[in-house]
């Protein structure tokens, strides 16, 4: 883990609620108001701090990580906030998550991108570690960026998640992963990731315990 990470604070980028419904959050990124519908029924349908951190970082570092016309895959897209920000920044976005999350994900992405002059994002099912060769054959799919936020927490799918990251991270692909570090398993996952990829901590958000990491295929 080379270089010193920049120390940042997650900015209060959400604006006062216009609606009175508890399940909608309003954010402003890249000059656009983004309205996110959350669902308390699924982990993946809530905006976690890693998504705020990565959205903020992508907005602030457009020269370093230029997403315009790039192929971007988000794994564990959840509410879709990061995919929407990447779309506004000009990327060809594929947002993926578990089947039960896709309806809310599709709704948020559609609502927030439909009237913009942007590449229309695609929403697809992706169960980590399952059917990767069939659903995303490497002969057809190559991504410039893999985005992941708060995909590591206290769950049993960490090995399939790592296998999914390894599968999609081809030479030339940049993985940007932001995560709130809570448990020893989070650090163990980071160690495994660092054993496979060249890994750098780009930024830390100490108030939120969020780290933002960049990982690329290790060159022999």
Automatic annotation (TrEMBL):
The keyword NAD does not apply. One of its GO terms (biological process) is methylation. The keyword Ubl conjugation does not apply. GO terms for molecular function: methyltransferase activity. InterPro entries: Methyltransf_16, SAM-dependent_MTases_sf. Keywords: Methyltransferase, S-adenosyl-L-methionine, Transferase. This is MT21C methyltransferase. It comes from Anseranas semipalmata (Magpie goose).
